Amino acid sequence: MMPEHSIRSALIKQGLRLEKNGANSSSRQRFGVGYMVIDARTNSVVLGSKDRPYDASLDEVAAHYVT
Fold this sequence. Notes:
Layout: H1 4-13, E1 16-20, H2 26-31, E2 35-39, E3 44-47, H3 58-65
Antiparallel strand pairs: 1-2, 2-3
Helix pairs in contact: 1-3
């Protein structure tokens, strides 16, 4: 598993940003830590909102966007 900061750096180079659900959010309390990948240019979600907001794991993000 790659560290979160390494994944963030790789995404930034691709014009994307990584968002994590807030520590006090209800989704985090129910489902644990989750992530969304946002296209910085269009501000649209490209990964992590299929079933609910922030539903991607860090491993899923790395598998899709980090080489």
